[in-house]
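User: My collaborator sent over this chain with a note saying "see what the structure looks like." That's all I know about it. Can you take a look?
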Amino acid sequence: MSQNYFTTYKSENFLDFKFDLIKLIYADPYGIKNNSIFKTDYYSKDKGHWFLLFREKVLEKFSPWFLKKYNAEKFECEHCWYQVYKQNNFHEPHTHAGTNFTNVFYLQLPGKESTTKSKLNFKAEEGDLVSFPGFITHESVKNIYQKDKIIISFNSSIRINE
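Assistant: Without extra context I'll predict from the sequence alone. Here is the result:
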């Protein structure tokens, strides 16, 4: 499979909102511990204030960029959630069936090897939003650091112009 299936979007003015977004996630009342993940709001229908800030600062700029990249006419964010990984937390290999793309926004990375892993490894930094097909198996390896890893993930689909 080609590395071209992975795209990386660099967030504008990331440091202007990074710490506010982190604070909102830690304060979010909808997050729970789930297996080997310290905190996630994946299972909540309700979204806290973090989502409003993320939508304004990242999604509203990312979606037109993504549409242009794929010459598509419609972008749909189907589900959005955050995950906080403390030391020794991880997320086992999985896919996101039923969606075109899996998207991972790296809010806080404790080390360079803390990014999402797949057979087609890619590089990402804090403030990057990486997209890849939902059928690609990926995982979050064990966080070996004392610093938390924080990501925001969402599934999305596009409709291609005909």
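A starting point for your reply to your collaborator: The radius of gyration is 15 Å.
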